[in-house]
Amino acid sequence: MLDPIQIEQTYKQFIGNLPNWVHDGVVHIDLHTLHELGLLHSMQNDMSDSDDLTQYFHVIESAEKVTLFNDQFIVWIIPKMDEQIPMTNVLIALNYPEEAHLEIVFTTAGVYNTPRYVLRVLQHYLLDMLETEATLTSIEKNQ
């Protein structure tokens, strides 16, 4: 697991050349994306489950961003203004012992730029990444 200094260095590396690190591009969260991810129904019902918290994180807060990290993930939440429109960029990386691997970047803006949407989408991607890692581990063990 990377320490906070290494995490900050990794962030600077990622953000300094984001197009090079995000091969699939930045996911823009809108109505269509929420529908594709299957999050519209859960957003409308707003059934909050206290056991639904995916992970527990250490938090580092700065003027530029909030960094969440644990032994599996590093998440950078970066609020900013784009032409007077508030938006939030979120970078999610797997936290490997020697380095972090950037997996996904998404952005929210306008009506979708609320903590509720940002955290719900973040949780969706974390769960998806956990399932993918479990599948890969299972395949590796069977070979």
Helices and strands in order:
Elements: H1 4-16, H2 18-21, E1 27-28, H3 31-36, H4 40-45, E2 58-61, E3 66-69, E4 73-82, E5 85-95, E6 100-109, H5 115-142
Parallel strand pairs: 1-6
Antiparallel strand pairs: 2-3, 3-4, 4-5, 5-6
Features:
143 residues; alpha+beta; 6-stranded mixed sheet; 5 helices; 6 strands
Structure in a nutshell:
The protein is of the alpha+beta class. The protein has helices spanning 4-16, 18-21, 31-36, 40-45, 115-142, and strands at 27-28, 58-61, 66-69, 73-82, 85-95, 100-109.
How would you describe this protein?
With 143 residues, the protein is α+β, with helices and mostly antiparallel strands. 40% of the residues lie in helices and 29% in strands. It contains five helices and six strands, in the order H-H-E-H-H-E-E-E-E-E-H. The protein has helices spanning 4-16, 18-21, 31-36, 40-45, 115-142; strands at residues 27-28, 58-61, 66-69, 73-82, 85-95, 100-109. It has a six-stranded mixed sheet. The longest helix has 28 residues, at 115-142. The protein is globular and about 50 Å long. The mean pLDDT is 88.
